[in-house]
Amino acid sequence: MTRPTALRPTLAEPTARIAVGALCAIAASAAVFLLLDLYAVVAMRSRLKSAISAYGVGSGRWIFTLAILFLAAGSAALLVAVVDQQLTRWRSGATVALTLWVLGLLAIAIFPKQDWSQPPSISGSIHLTASGIAFVSLPIAAVLLAKPWLRHGTHGVHARRTRLFAWLAIASFSPLLYAFVVAAVTGVAWWEVVTFGHSERLLAVSEVATLAVIGTWVLTRK
Questions:
Q1: Are 19 and 218 in contact (CB under 8 A)?
Q2: pLDDT tens for residues 61-73?
Q3: In terms of residue numbers, what domain contains 134?
Q4: In a domain, 150, yes or no
Q5: pTM of the model
Q6: What is the DSSP letter of 3?
Q7: Residue 129 confidence class, pLDDT cut points 50, 70, 90
Q8: Number of structural domains found in the chain
């Protein structure tokens, strides 16, 4: 991937508005999930062992769906701002990966999770596949976005910070990857290998933080 050659010297006002709107949407999504977790812990005495997607089952599904759509919309807007600021191009690996993250989130919102102690369903399988694609795509996008700018005098700091958070997200995914590998080798259900809810929340926090770092980079003038 080659470095863009015509980086904007300053951040255009429309781009700034898009980036700020993106960060606000992402923050709103994170706040909703935080409130859902607080309610589960305080009112329901939950230990948060269940997946975040469990909030998408039942009468409260609309809250989960709305939060995911906020996250998807914020991520899509952030992609527009990143390209408009010429940190990457529309035809780039970073753009493709970030697009897969957004599409994965949309699929998660549309297709609810299932109880994996029951026989697999089409909806549950799509939800699981979309979750895997989304969780993997975002850190890959961040690594690819940062790579051309690592040695840049002005943008190098932001690029290295973006890469760091991307690798933290990848590391956060390792317990879930371990669970899938153990399940494939031993036949033990993957959700019994690790405390899935805790692992998924750690991954979610690291990925939202990665988005925030990218958004901060966009808002920083050259």
A1: yes
A2: 999 999 999 999 9
A3: 13-219
A4: yes
A5: 0.88
A6: P
A7: very high
A8: 1
